[in-house]
Amino acid sequence: MANVNLVFGTVYGSAQFTAETLAKKITEMGFTTTLKQPDELAGFIPAESDYLIIVCSTTGQGDLPEDIQPWFTQMKSAAPYLPKLKYSIVGLGDSSYDTFCGAAKQFDELLNELGAQALTPRLEIDATETMEPELDAVEWLTTWQAAANADML
Protein backbone atom coordinates (compact mmCIF):
# COMPACT_ATOMS: atom_id res chain seq x y z
CA MET A 1 0.00 0.00 0.00
CA ALA A 2 1.14 3.56 -0.62
CA ASN A 3 2.90 5.77 1.90
CA VAL A 4 1.21 8.89 3.22
CA ASN A 5 3.27 11.76 4.65
CA LEU A 6 1.33 13.91 7.08
CA VAL A 7 2.66 17.37 7.86
CA PHE A 8 1.07 19.84 10.23
CA GLY A 9 1.34 23.45 11.26
CA THR A 10 -0.29 24.43 14.53
CA VAL A 11 -0.48 27.24 17.05
CA TYR A 12 -2.56 25.78 19.89
CA GLY A 13 -2.36 22.07 19.06
CA SER A 14 -5.63 21.45 17.19
CA ALA A 15 -3.94 20.85 13.84
CA GLN A 16 -1.41 18.51 15.46
CA PHE A 17 -4.16 16.50 17.17
CA THR A 18 -6.11 16.38 13.89
CA ALA A 19 -3.00 15.17 12.02
CA GLU A 20 -2.31 12.52 14.68
CA THR A 21 -5.92 11.33 14.48
CA LEU A 22 -5.74 11.14 10.67
CA ALA A 23 -2.43 9.25 10.82
CA LYS A 24 -3.99 6.61 13.05
CA LYS A 25 -7.09 6.24 10.86
CA ILE A 26 -5.09 6.13 7.60
CA THR A 27 -2.86 3.41 9.08
CA GLU A 28 -6.01 1.46 9.98
CA MET A 29 -7.00 1.71 6.29
CA GLY A 30 -3.84 -0.18 5.37
CA PHE A 31 -1.63 2.72 4.27
CA THR A 32 1.85 3.33 5.65
CA THR A 33 1.84 6.71 7.36
CA THR A 34 4.65 9.00 8.39
CA LEU A 35 3.68 11.88 10.67
CA LYS A 36 6.35 14.55 10.29
CA GLN A 37 6.92 16.78 13.31
CA PRO A 38 7.68 20.42 12.40
CA ASP A 39 11.28 20.04 13.62
CA GLU A 40 11.74 17.14 11.16
CA LEU A 41 10.84 19.18 8.08
CA ALA A 42 14.20 20.85 7.39
CA GLY A 43 15.27 19.58 3.97
CA PHE A 44 12.14 17.43 3.55
CA ILE A 45 10.91 17.20 -0.03
CA PRO A 46 7.94 14.81 -0.33
CA ALA A 47 8.56 11.78 -2.51
CA GLU A 48 6.35 11.91 -5.58
CA SER A 49 5.45 8.25 -5.10
CA ASP A 50 3.91 9.11 -1.69
CA TYR A 51 0.75 10.98 -0.87
CA LEU A 52 1.04 14.21 1.10
CA ILE A 53 -1.55 15.54 3.52
CA ILE A 54 -1.00 18.94 5.12
CA VAL A 55 -3.08 19.84 8.16
CA CYS A 56 -2.64 23.53 8.93
CA SER A 57 -4.28 26.11 11.12
CA THR A 58 -4.20 29.82 10.32
CA THR A 59 -2.97 32.56 12.60
CA GLY A 60 -2.89 36.35 12.52
CA GLN A 61 -4.05 37.80 9.22
CA GLY A 62 -4.10 34.53 7.27
CA ASP A 63 -0.54 33.64 8.26
CA LEU A 64 1.16 30.28 8.60
CA PRO A 65 1.88 29.01 12.12
CA GLU A 66 5.48 29.62 13.19
CA ASP A 67 6.26 25.90 13.42
CA ILE A 68 5.62 25.25 9.71
CA GLN A 69 6.68 28.62 8.26
CA PRO A 70 10.36 27.54 7.75
CA TRP A 71 9.30 24.50 5.69
CA PHE A 72 6.93 26.58 3.58
CA THR A 73 9.74 29.08 2.92
CA GLN A 74 12.19 26.28 2.11
CA MET A 75 9.78 24.68 -0.37
CA LYS A 76 9.09 28.04 -1.98
CA SER A 77 12.82 28.82 -2.29
CA ALA A 78 13.93 25.38 -3.48
CA ALA A 79 10.93 25.17 -5.83
CA PRO A 80 11.21 21.43 -6.51
CA TYR A 81 9.19 20.37 -9.54
CA LEU A 82 6.71 17.76 -8.23
CA PRO A 83 4.34 16.91 -11.10
CA LYS A 84 3.59 13.38 -9.83
CA LEU A 85 2.96 14.35 -6.20
CA LYS A 86 -0.67 13.97 -5.10
CA TYR A 87 -1.65 16.05 -2.09
CA SER A 88 -4.58 17.00 0.10
CA ILE A 89 -4.92 19.94 2.47
CA VAL A 90 -6.95 20.18 5.64
CA GLY A 91 -7.27 23.79 6.77
CA LEU A 92 -8.40 24.84 10.22
CA GLY A 93 -9.72 28.36 10.51
CA ASP A 94 -12.40 30.71 11.74
CA SER A 95 -14.84 32.07 9.16
CA SER A 96 -15.44 35.22 11.19
CA TYR A 97 -12.07 36.39 9.80
CA ASP A 98 -11.59 37.62 6.21
CA THR A 99 -8.48 35.43 6.00
CA PHE A 100 -10.36 32.17 6.73
CA CYS A 101 -8.02 29.20 6.18
CA GLY A 102 -5.42 31.56 4.70
CA ALA A 103 -2.49 29.28 5.56
CA ALA A 104 -4.15 26.28 3.89
CA LYS A 105 -4.82 28.39 0.80
CA GLN A 106 -1.15 29.43 0.71
CA PHE A 107 -0.05 25.79 0.79
CA ASP A 108 -2.54 24.91 -1.93
CA GLU A 109 -1.17 27.70 -4.15
CA LEU A 110 2.45 26.72 -3.46
CA LEU A 111 1.94 23.04 -4.27
CA ASN A 112 0.04 24.00 -7.41
CA GLU A 113 2.98 26.21 -8.45
CA LEU A 114 5.33 23.25 -7.87
CA GLY A 115 3.27 21.20 -10.32
CA ALA A 116 1.73 18.89 -7.70
CA GLN A 117 -1.81 17.62 -8.18
CA ALA A 118 -4.60 17.98 -5.62
CA LEU A 119 -5.94 14.51 -4.83
CA THR A 120 -9.03 16.02 -3.17
CA PRO A 121 -10.47 19.52 -2.92
CA ARG A 122 -9.12 21.47 0.07
CA LEU A 123 -11.04 20.72 3.26
CA GLU A 124 -11.73 23.87 5.28
CA ILE A 125 -12.86 23.27 8.85
CA ASP A 126 -14.55 26.23 10.52
CA ALA A 127 -14.00 26.76 14.25
CA THR A 128 -17.35 28.59 14.42
CA GLU A 129 -19.09 25.35 13.43
CA THR A 130 -17.10 22.68 15.29
CA MET A 131 -15.04 22.41 18.46
CA GLU A 132 -13.55 19.08 17.32
CA PRO A 133 -11.93 19.53 13.90
CA GLU A 134 -10.54 15.99 14.01
CA LEU A 135 -14.09 14.62 13.71
CA ASP A 136 -14.70 16.56 10.49
CA ALA A 137 -11.32 15.42 9.19
CA VAL A 138 -12.07 11.76 9.96
CA GLU A 139 -15.43 12.10 8.18
CA TRP A 140 -13.55 13.55 5.14
CA LEU A 141 -11.25 10.50 5.06
CA THR A 142 -13.85 8.51 3.11
CA THR A 143 -13.49 11.06 0.29
CA TRP A 144 -9.70 10.92 0.58
CA GLN A 145 -9.60 7.12 0.60
CA ALA A 146 -11.86 6.87 -2.46
CA ALA A 147 -9.60 9.30 -4.35
CA ALA A 148 -6.42 7.48 -3.28
CA ASN A 149 -7.86 4.07 -4.22
CA ALA A 150 -8.93 5.40 -7.65
CA ASP A 151 -5.49 6.95 -8.13
CA MET A 152 -3.75 3.63 -7.40
CA LEU A 153 -5.70 1.73 -10.06
Question: Could you give a quick summary of the protein structure above?
Answer:
With 153 residues, the chain is of the alpha/beta class.
Can you put this structure into words, describing what you see?
The chain is of the alpha/beta class and 153 residues long. It contains 4 helices and 6 strands. It has helices spanning 14-28, 69-78, 102-113, 133-152, and strands at 3-9, 32-36, 51-57, 86-93, 117-118, 123-126. Strands 1, 2, 3, 4, 5 and 6 form a 6-stranded parallel beta sheet that branches. α1 packs across α4 (133-152).
Q: Taking all residues together, what is the mean pLDDT?
A: 96
> How would a crystallographer describe the biggest sheet?
6 strands, parallel
Q: Helices and strands, in N-to-C order?
A: EHEEHEHEEH
Give the tally of β-strands: 6
Principal-axes shape call: globular
Low-pLDDT residue spans: none
Please state roughly what percent of the residues sit in beta strands, choosing from under 5%, 5-15%, 15-25%, 25-35%, 35-45% or over 45%.
15-25%
**Rg, Cα atoms, Å:** 14 Å
Number of helices: 4
